[in-house]
Design a protein that fits this description.
Number of strands: 10
Shape: globular
Largest sheet: 6 strands, mixed
């Protein structure tokens, strides 16, 4: 029965991606492309958990850089638009403030004991994201992963998360902690790819589709206004 909702989810994702690829005004907002997290267990070291985070859009990454004091405040326009530049990812990735932010906003614990995190030097932060390696007190089967990335900037931000065996979850304000089965079979208590997780992810991607469509509509109205203005000037 899970195949049908997953197929529908894939269709929504493709539609959202195609619409979001159209030109749209640059502005950081929590209803754009969602950020993602991938959680895996190290194949050679059963006590190490890898968490890879990827930002949703370059404007959100620039907004984070400004909030951390890594980028200048004037990158945020008076109307809320964000001036993103191609050098921003490298500037943010090399900052110790960003490293500290990752370790503060993403946490892993096993058996109620925290796992120590170490950030791998990010390469192409905007494209490949950043990976944090968490070393737990011993080999892990189930871990609790907390994700609060960007929700301190705007509580509406969400994170789509995936884990071994098709496990999925949506992190959001008020639901920033989730248990993941990293070895053995996923538990039957909702940590697997259950209906609720599928519905949540579909809702997030559906919101992306609506937001992207609205942005395209605004862009078309602006373009039409400019064309009419040019025609009026020519006729005059």
């Amino acid at each position: 029965m899970a195949a049908r909702p997953l197929a529908a989810l894939a269709a929504i994702g493709l539609a959202a991606a195609s619409v979001a690829s159209m030109p749209a005004p640059a502005a950081a907002h929590p209803f754009g492309d969602p950020q993602t997290v991938a959680i895996t267990l190290d194949e050679q070291r059963p006590e190490v958990v890898h968490v890879r985070w990827r930002v949703g859009g370059p404007d959100d990454l620039t907004l984070l850089g400004v909030s951390l004091g890594v980028l200048p405040q004037d990158r945020i326009m008076l109307d809320g638009a964000v001036d993103s530049r191609y050098t921003d990812p490298a500037t943010i990735a090399s900052s110790e403030r960003f490293t500290a932010y990752l370790l503060r906003q993403i946490t892993v614990s096993a058996g109620g004991r925290p796992c120590a995190g170490a950030v791998e030097p990010p390469m192409a932060l905007d494209l490949k994201g950043a990976t944090v390696d968490y070393t737990c007190p011993g080999p892990v089967g189930t871990v609790t992963v907390g994700v609060r990335m960007l929700t301190d900037l705007n509580p509406a931000y969400r994170t789509l998360a995936t884990g071994p065996g098709g496990q999925r979850a949506v992190y959001e304000t008020g639901k920033d902690s989730h248990d993941w089965t990293l070895s053995g079979e996923p538990a039957a208590d909702g940590t697997g790819p259950g209906r609720s997780a599928v519905i949540q992810i579909a809702a997030v991607l559906g919101g992306v589709l609506v937001a992207a469509a609205a942005a395209v509509a605004v862009a078309r109205r602006v373009r039409g206004r400019r064309v009419r203005t040019r025609k009026a000037a020519t006729n005059g």
